[in-house]
Amino acid sequence: MYATAFLDVPPLVAAGGTVRLPGSKSISNRVLLLAALAHGTTTVHDLLDSDDTRVMLDALATLGCGLHRDGGVLRIQGLGGRLGDDVRQRALSLFLGNAGTAMRPLTAALALLGGDFELRGVPRMHERPIGDLVDALVQLGCQVEYLGNPGYPPLRIRPVAASALQLDAPIRVRGDVSSQFLTALLLALPLAAASRAITIDVIGELISKPYIEITLNLLARFGIDVQRDGWSRFVIPAGAQYRSPGDIHVEADASSASYFIALGAIAAGAAGQDGLKIEGVGADSIQGDIRFVEAARQMGAQVSSGPNWLQIERGAWPLRAIDIDANHIPDAAMTLAVMALYADGPSTLRNIASWRVKETDRIDAMAAELRKLGATVEAGPDFIRIDPLPPGHWRRASIHTYDDHRVAMCFSLAAFNPDRLPVRILDPKCVGKTFPDYFEALFSVVQPAEVPVICVDGPTASGKGTLAAEIARRLGYHYLDSGALYRVAGLVMRRAGLEADAAHEARIAELARGLALRFDAGQVLLAGEDITEAIRTEAAGMDASRVSALPAVREALRELQLSFRQLPGLVADGRDMGTVIFPDASLKVYLTASAAHRAERRHKQLISKGISVTLDSLRADLEARDARDSSRSVAPLKPAEDARLLDNSDQSIEQSVDQVLAWWRQVQPFDAR
Predict the structure, then answer these.
(1) Which of 258, 427, 517, 525 meets the CB 3.0–4.6 Å disulfide criterion with 335?
(2) Domain boundary among 547, 567, 587
(3) One of 46, 331, 573, 576 is an active-site residue; which one?
């Protein structure tokens, strides 16, 4: 997951391959709560690992639920519908982040389980309504208090005796604000149905009905067969009791599938690829958002499906405009708003009032960010209308994500614009709510128009490695320490029992070409092994000098360096990155410092490692090495003609980083409106 302040998605031109989706958030948190309330042990497979599921798991652990992980499998020892005495006797505070699928159901369940609880979340959660659910619980006789604004979290729940609950009359709950209120009651009320049936009456038109279908399906899996009269009355049978199904598998998230369905509909097919395949969810999904497939087909996508997969190819182009009641796919419909930019006319999404009470006010958020891209948008209380963006009218934009995972994922699709402009996604880590590896998954199946490269070249001990690594970290880019490559090649040669001579040259070159290298947080990793110290020895340096004399090895390492150019971008440091390896780099920096300053830095490094050396000898060595590097016949050390010179003799690393990032903003300007 990218934890950077922003992530620049380069212009993308094609897509193809296979992507495996994470588990559904809606199913995951429902399963976790049901397993916790049930009698027996439930083994959960393919559970989503995300911010929302983590806060639910933390809450269940606080309630005394037994949780045991074994790789990707979670075993949950249920509470059997009853809190332990140690939990009942304490006042507990639960932090639930911005997870509506945790806050709403836990509010209902804890109000019926008994105990003293305080439920809090992030500031946005305290702006998301919960009053209709609390009103329904108060009808029952539960004691729920607002600790802030009436109608919103945070909440205080106090214990109530089962005998004090009022169960004779139907419980009334509004259905036109959020389906999560009804879901919360359905999941929790079996706790009170030991001796009598409990009826829920829905007031108003029930929105997001497919999410109630998920709830009813999972309740049945846990032994609760809810009877219903259309979408207005639901009856929990008397004697209802949660029973573990033993094993349960969480299907992949159909809402997350929408981004890749849209991707296949928007992007030209990648060479040699037969469309885009999505694994983990298919036509038989219990999730309502699988009906996004129907909307995508209306817009022109070609979609085939099986029991656990979808295959997407671009069909009509441009996409066909759509006018749709999107109430049945409220989360996935956000993706349609970005697809509308590629349509042949205006598109309208209707009956989406629930967008306004999600992680953010999604109608206003989508309208604002679409306008940044250049689109004409009309937004109303429960609809949004988007005009397409023709070639030549797209704008670079920094997309504000409002701490909303779906905003971030939707707008990544704007990188396929015909004007070949990148898109900046602010706060990309917000995707951790449901799909922590979303951008990694996206980058694995797309082809860019280009991958940006920043080169940092310079003489020995100029600090280029430290600078380049920090720039890469700030941008979320890959990092290449080219100076380490010959040392790694020498180490691999030595381990293979080879000598740096003509007889072994081809074999050493083959090993060098296939090095599985990664540079991460100051470590050099070879096939996952930390070899940082192993390549810094004097012997490793001598081996590096020997292999560097072999032409086939030099060519193999040049190819290896080129392979580091991967999405979303690369920062490479060395002596000839900008002149030889990446002459087309977007930004070239030539970093230097006086020999005296470099000698002083190197002296401090060596002294800290217990190596005794004099400043004068270090300075003389650096000056001699500079002379050799600048006068060598092959790739002499010198700035590229278009490099920006940075003398950091009197600068801190932070100042140097700020300077390079300022240059990068000049190269990659974004409209921040």
Answers:
(1) 258
(2) 567
(3) 331
